[in-house]
Each structure stands twice: as structure tokens, then as C-alpha cells.
Amino acid sequence: MSNNLNLILKLGNPKLYEASSPLKKDELPEAREKAHAMAELVTEYRRRHGAGRAIAAPQIGYMKRMIVLNINRPQVLINPVLEDKSHEMIELWDDCMSFPNLLVRVRRHKSCRIRFLNRDWKEQSWWLEDDLSELLQHEYDHLDGILATQRAIDERAFALKE
Ligand SMILES: [Zn+2]
Questions:
Q1: Enzyme catalytic residues
Q2: Which one of 3.30.70.1140, 3.40.50.300, 3.90.45.10, 1.20.1440.20 gives the CATH number of domain 4-160?
Q3: Mind giving me the DSSP string for 79-121?
Q4: What is the pTM of this model?
């Protein structure tokens, strides 16, 4: 069993509270290598914990604005922007690969749009609802150094798994 999951920074690591920088086009080769490693981490995390769909670059200490989604296949979102956030909110127990045993009650926009550059530096835009909407808001927050713990709806909004 490999220890790759140790590459994921955990709650308390100061880097998780830092904002990341936009990726530049000439950084794409390096970013693709990081994205490949990140996609594998999502797969490994899911194998270990039974959940896990996406990871943000700062979670492995790569302080760039990049998210890797790995649900059916890896998808790379570079320099994403969230727009058209719905007034309607949803409330849920959120978790994070940076704190595998903790659940946090948060509120997220029920729907939103995300614009980004893909791994070929082509502009893309997705309309997101419900689980994908809350997921991408969670990952986007990582790029600004914001963790779900900072989105807790009140002082009782924390629970341990098991
Ligand atoms: Zn997270």
C-alpha cells in the first residue's frame, strides 16, 4: 500500500490558508504533471475512504489556481471563475481530503456557473447544480485559502465520522 495520501496537506497546515496564484500558459507542462498526480490521489483516496471526487492544487502544496475533478475521468480546471451563483442555497455535511474524519455543516449556492481553461488551455464553461455546484464551490474556496471549517454555519456544525 503506497503512502501517497501523505502528500495531501492536512488541516492545520498554514499553506491551506494561503491564496494561490493564477497559472500562466508556460507553466502548463508542469501543471499537467501535477494534475496527473492529483487525479491519482483522488482515485487512491476514494479507494481508501469510499468517497472523494476532486482536489485543489494547494492541497498538495502546489499554490496555483487549478482543480482536478476525477469522477468518471480526470478533468482539469485551470484559473476557474465562479459566476451566476443562485440566491437559493443548500445545506449539507461537507468533508475534505485535508480532514478525512471531520464533517462540517455548510451552506452553498444551489447552482452556479464555472468558467475555466482546460488542460489544452481552451476556455470552457459548465452550469452546475446541487452536488456538483457544492463540490466546485468547495474546491474553488481552496484556491482562496478558505476551508469548509471556515464556512461552518454555527458552532455546532462539526461532527466526526464513525
Ligand atoms: Zn477540500
A1: 139
A2: 3.90.45.10
A3: EEEEE---S-EEEEEEEETTEEEEEEEEEEESEEEEEEE-TTS
A4: 0.96
